[in-house]
Amino acid sequence: MIDDLPDLGGIERLVVSRRTSLRVDPDREVPADLVDRLLRLAVWAPNHKKTFPWRFAVVEGEGRRRLGELIAAYEAKIGASPERQDKARTKYMRAPTVLLVGATHHPDPVRRIEDRDAVAAGVQNLLLGATAAGLASHWATGTWMDDDDVKALADLGPDDELIALVYLGWPIGDTPMVPRPEPAVVHVS
Predict the structure, then answer these.
(1) Which of 132, 106, 166, 114 is nearest to 34 (CA)?
(2) In degrees rounded to 5, what are phi and psi of residue 177?
């Protein structure tokens, strides 16, 4: 009987309302206490072998410009156009808080995959928490994530892995919902 199903309304509304958005007020700071709470949510993600691989760098103020300069230098190393290098210098200034989220290196390749998955799940916890707090967020990646200088800014070693760059800020407009397909499911009995 369908009436006996648990009420998932709250979590369903939260998940469905989460939007990827960079339409944020770049000058309105995200309180440090709120960022700390979001990071604590991230570490509640499943972690198969209890390795606790999450590592975070909170980049704010002029640190965002430093991040942009490092990524622009990386873009220059790989032969990117001057326009792309210029864009990298300024794009991290568009949100008041930028998080770099990494996973510590584990020599076992299976454990490394499990740890990466745990960090990715932690990022989703963080994004859902940001939505619940009224923040806009955007999860970004790029080839620059393997650059040792960028990793060093986040206090990661060369063998550690950056998983996400997350922009956080207070929204300045609505973001439309992108329709999602129904899940592809195979039932095995």
Answers:
(1) 132
(2) -80, 135
Write the pLDDT tens digit of every residue in 34-43.
999 999 999 9
Q: Could you give the dihedral angle defined by the CA atoms of residues 175, 118, 47 and 7, in that order, rounded to the nearest 10 degrees?
A: 20
Q: Give CA separation, 20 vs 2, 35, 68, in Å.
A: 32, 18, 21
| Complete domains list, the chain, with CATH | 22-59+96-169 (3.40.109.10)
Q: How far is CA 142 from CA 49, 53, 74, 162, in A?
A: 28, 21, 11, 10
pLDDT tens for residues 5-34? 888 888 888 888 888 888 999 999 999 999
Whole-model pTM? 0.92
Cβ neighbours around 84 below 10 Å, total: 14
